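Notes from the 1:1 (GR / supervisor)

We went over the backlog. Supervisor wanted to see one worked example end to end before approving the batch request, so GR pasted a single chain during the call. The sequence is below; no edits were made to it. Supervisor asked that the structure be written out right there so they could see what the output format looks like.
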Amino acid sequence: MKKYAKLTMAMIISIVLFSSCAAIIKVDDKVQDNIKEIDETVEEAICENEVPENTKLDSSQAEKDNEAVEKQEKIEDKEIDLQKVKPNEAGQIMVVMYHGLGDTEKTYVRTRENFKEDLRLLYEKGYRPISLKDYINNEIDTEAGKTPVVFTFDDGNITDFNIIEEDGEKKIDPESAIGILEDFNKKHEDFNLEATFFLYGENPFRQKELIDYKLKYIIDKGMDIGNHTKGHENLRSLSAIDIQKTIAKNIDYIKGYLPKYDMNTLSLPYGARPKSEEKRKYLFKGSFDGTIYNNIGALAVGWKPEHSSIHKKFDYKYIHRVHGSSEKFGIRYWLEYFDNNPNKRYISDGDKDTVTVPENLKEVVDENKLGERVLRTYSIEEESE
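Structure output shown during the call:
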């Protein structure tokens, strides 16, 4: 402090008596002694109108304070009626698992009419699609009061993405999954065109001459492609080397068409994974023949909803899915369940910069997963009879 008191005295005298730093300072001996004690760095700062280092630190802190204020103002600008919306971003989310569409309902075949009805029910009940990657990475940006839902399609069946010829021109089959999703999106723009297609083998979607077109189409539309291994092997029975080989070889195949695409999600064939932790680690990180991979999530076969990705129990290593069927524990079962248990359902606060949960659920939030987001809690008021 003494150092900066001397600095202040020198600055005042300099301003009062002289018009520039180059002027000759003629003051009494006592002031001259004070000036000589000032660091050369500080003297240069005075002449060049710079800020001393310690002052810069104060300025940096002020900038952080300003950023915090601005962030709080943004939150307040997006303020919602918490008692009306009742956001619960620690609630459960359905990651829906489909395989193919058909005329007859089977275990892994959804009729087209039932698929269309799934979409209608989801929309009317306030569900809105998000990408699998956004879900895993906790980058959910869903409208306030709505619930995110994730669509996944395994195996790359032709009924998921079919090209037909009509009047001499090729077009997307309106009765394929992508055709149905696109049509629904056109009618309901707030029902985003989001889905992940988990592919394997060398003939995804079963029209070999159109592989390049289809893969690029999916990515261009903002949808995603996931890894389903090269040969749809049961990963429980493979060696560590073979696990890495089948995952890496499938990446190599897709990169032959999409060299810059990062395929970093894995759907476990048959829902099977190695029993030992030593082998399981290769589901997420590994390499083979020069190809390195780093998966951010692995998906199981569907039967139940999954926790929010900020929940302490969320495990990206084994993400549960809901079966796209009308059977017990299928999508219709869970839609009814959430109708009857709305407190279990993820409800968005509409602000990607905050995570809002009822006060009684604060303890289930893993604050290490929040990143830059702010945790906000509130007490739910009892409804009067």
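Supervisor's comment: The longest strand covers residues 147-154.
Batch request approved.
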